[in-house]
């Protein structure tokens, strides 16, 4: 089941409109928008993870001094 990227509500597919509608906030998404949002989220998470790894490495080097 798909979740709304805005409010985490449930998304229902409207075959007539060919869009996803959030049952909680009413926001409407196309399939392409949902794919783009998911890709951006994955990219941000990877970047955050790499930043945290580097920061942990850098701090561990500082603690050894």
Characterise this structure.
With 65 residues, the protein is an alpha+beta fold. The chain has one domain (11-63). Helices cover 51% and strands 15% of the residues. It contains one helix and three strands. The protein has one helix spanning 31-63, and strands at 11-14, 19-22, 28-29. A three-stranded antiparallel sheet has the order 1-2-3. It is rod-shaped. The model has no long low-confidence stretch (mean pLDDT 92).
Question: What features would you highlight for this structure?
Answer:
about 60 residues; alpha+beta; 3-stranded antiparallel β-sheet; 1 helix; 3 strands; about 15% strand
- Which percent band covers the strand fraction? 15-25%
| Main β-sheet description | 3 strands, antiparallel
Q: Structural class of the secondary structure composition?
A: alpha+beta
From the alpha carbons, calculate the radius of gyration and give it in angstroms.
19 Å
Residue stretches low in confidence (pLDDT < 50, at least 5 long) are none
Number of domains: 1
Shape: rod-shaped
